[in-house]
Amino acid sequence: MNHSASSSRRDFLKVVGACALAAASGAGFQKRAKRRLRIGHTGITWPGKDTVEQAIKDIAGLGYHGFETFGSTLEWWENQKGGIGPVLEKYQLPLISAYCGIDLIDPAKTEAGIEDMVKWTKLLKKYGGKAVVIGPGGVNRNSYNFREHKEFIVKTLNKVGKVISDLGAVGCVHQHTGTAIESQEEVYAVMNEVNTDYVKFGPDIGQLAKGGADPVKIVKDFLSIIKHVHIKDYKGGETGYEGYVPIGQGVIDMPTIMDMLEKSDFAGVVMVELDGTSRAPQPPLEAARISKAYLAGLGYEFKA
């Protein structure tokens, strides 16, 4: 082969190599393209009221964009330590939401439940949060008859949602295993009948899977009224987290769910969650780090 031919071949191979590199880089860019939504983390991976500061410290240290705790925990901190504000300020972590449980099937408990909602919503607003996660009270699922309680559940949620809205926050129904709203049928029955002017949806993706529902279908069908969301993966069996696992280690199609949220008008903070127990196979910080790494691989940015 003469020199000219050799040079031409080298030039050709350089072009081919450059194109291949560009294609690979483009593919990687598409995979890790910057996302618009911010990712926060709830505090239940660190069980107990006395672990709240450690949870905030760890979550902030990993660069998550927000924090959620229980309404009752906000109340405890207010009464016992003068409020959670100084801790949030110390670690520069915004409070996004509060999980607030209420009995939805016993009329005798409605008034007290709404009083708690008012108290917790005011505390949430005081420290900058806006999303009230309406957690249905627990029931005996072996004897529970949803149809007998459906009308009262919807009526109570409408009342609670209006109260929360009047206080300047957003009430989001949060279906949960072992409660009055668990199954796919129950989610559709409730969310198709509540007054969505005041009652929004705040699904827990892992809880949906554990309850036998299809998380992708439910998110798709109720996307327009989702104003808050918990994401955790589900594997089943003994995981040390009630069957759940850090994101990316279970069976849930999280990329599809996140893509739907990205393309919707959802403007909240997506909250990572993992149910902490004494049987957890790793420290809470490590579990939160695993979920962060997976989400970073999808293109989500963290502060650290």
Any descriptors?
alpha/beta, TIM Barrel, eight-stranded parallel beta sheet, two-stranded antiparallel sheet
CATH topology assignment: TIM Barrel
- In terms of DSSP E residues, the strand content is 5-15%
> Which class best fits the helix and strand makeup?
alpha/beta
Succession of helices and strands: HEHEHHEHEHEHEHHEEEHEH
What is the CA–CA distance across the termini?
Answer: 55 Å
Mean pLDDT: 91
Query: How much helical structure, as a percent, in the residues?
Result: 40-55%
Instruction: Determine Rg (CA atoms, Å).
Output: 23 Å
Structure annotation, total helices: 11
Tell me the name of the CATH homologous superfamily.
Divalent-metal-dependent TIM barrel enzymes
Uncertain runs = 1-31
* CATH first level: Alpha Beta
**Major sheet details:** 8 strands, parallel
**How does the overall form come out from the CA principal axes?**
globular
Using the 3D structure, state the CATH architecture. Answer: Alpha-Beta Barrel
Write down how many β-strands occur, each being a DSSP E stretch of 2 or more residues.
10
Query: How many discrete structural domains?
Result: 1
**Assembly classification:** single chain
**Order of strands across the biggest sheet?**
6-5-4-3-2-1-10-7
